[in-house]
Amino acid sequence: MEIIELAEKKKAFAPPEERYRNPHKEAIRVRQIRIIIPKLDSYRKRFKKLLRNISIQLKVLWSAHKPLSKRKELLEARHLYRDASNLLKTDAKLEIITRLVSKALLFDCHYHPLYALKGDIYMRKGNWKNAITSYESAKLMAMQDENLSRNDQKMMYNERLIDAHKERGDWYWKNDHLLEASNDYEHVLLFRLPGMNIPSVQVHF
After folding, report:
1. Its domain of life (predicted)?
2. What pTM did the predictor assign?
């Protein structure tokens, strides 16, 4: 109504030759203005709502990436390890499990079960070299675990290393790489001897 009143006042003070020169055209123009302005109001409200939703989503993202306390990082690493272990028992894609393990290692790079789980993933892929490296990393980290006895530290992950060396040795044997096969079988023998612990090879993280 205010727009119509302003239009009427404008015409009232217009020169005589322009006043009501084309009433039909003027009526259409005023009607279009009355239609456009509510649409602009609707767009403005929708835009404000969109900005509000974006703001909420950004707050969620920022809060999700806030630095965690050391205790929460350790807990998060164990939760991710549990999820990855459960997924490995299913037909889940190994790439997804690998990402979970890698993320968990960012929270706690000293948690030796994560390296062992990484070795299990490589074993599933048939990548014995990386599996052995991961198991050796797990064994080295287990040596620093004060919750384990000295004997448990020495025996930890030996069975997995035996399996990895045996499978790789069998592959070498079938493909006539006898020297490499004998080296892997020697590792199996040393791991099986009671009280024996072969020197750990250099591990690259």
Report:
1. Eukaryota
2. 0.61
